[in-house]
User: Fold this.
Amino acid sequence: MEPIYAALIIVAIIALGELCSISTRAKVPTLLVVVFGMLVLFQTGIIPESLVESSVFTAFGSMLVPVLLVHLGTMIPLKVLFKQYKAVLTALVGVAISVSIILLIVSFLFDYNSAVAGAGPISGGIFAYIITRDGLSEAGLTSLAAIPVVIFALQNLVGMPLTAILLRKYALLIRGENPTDTETAATVQHEEQTASSLLFPDRLMQSSFFLLFLLLIGGSLATFLGSITGFINSSIWGLLIGIAGAALRIYPDHALDKANSSGITMIALIFVVIGSLVGITFEQIIASLVPALVIMILGTAGLTLGGWLGGKWLGWHPTKSIPVALTAMYGFPGDYLIVEEVSRSVGRTENERKRIMDELVAPMLIGGFTSVSIGSIIIASILVGTLN
Assistant:
């Protein structure tokens, strides 16, 4: 099949998933529709598995993974992370406890490799999934490949409703009070705009080609360092290069967005996920349901416990701290959409809605970024190195 036709068919399914996500306000996430839709189409023979390879997007997406990781490192300025240290610590405590519980109990109930197959995806999003999938493939553990698929597809359906319930309770508590720990999205944006000048002249930094060149340098360097260090995965190097590059003003904040390339890059990344579904059968999924559901329950319980302990330690109400920890299960844009929905449904006046939004939006966004974009990548990279 011609690559343009193959790409059209798969992008149409992605667009359908996006339509479902928008119409349900992310209650049915895009990737859930894409993953299960493609699995059904593959297994029924409606779409041949060779279609993914014919689109040539999978190879393109795999090449761009290091670039995307560098981009993630540029997304949140260090200054904002330091100001929202409570959200950062709460998210990290939640992920650490969740992963520890999974490794301890699932290793006892099933085996260590099954625990690793689920621990990475439950603590983060698409990148943790890809790292785990690659690690299982390199270790020859293809029989476990369905575990991260099931967890990756279903975790939003568990984490988002639980978060919404807890945040509504917290919003009722703060509805008549003055928020004391806020960092609004407008403040974050203002700090980004007033950051120190970039290293290179503005005329160069306004060029999409030059920004892509810088990002490719960072991604190539991450890949090279990962190949010679071994114990530090190239994914971790990509994050570190992005964070350091943004702090040193080599990269602008949200570098890939500034290069006008984030849309096509994310589509290519979804093609990588779809490519990982090739060869997975319904029999493997059914065989993986029990360990996957156990991992889902334990992971959710661990994040909840971690959020509660983190909030108790830092002086946050549990109905605020637990949702921050639960962002590990879905990340952006789910974290933002939930806060927006809660503020609109609980606030009785425009002033109340704004105060609820201002109180919750930054901790939730920073919590999601910390767990999904940083913590999960580091954890998944470390864990796959221990597979046997």
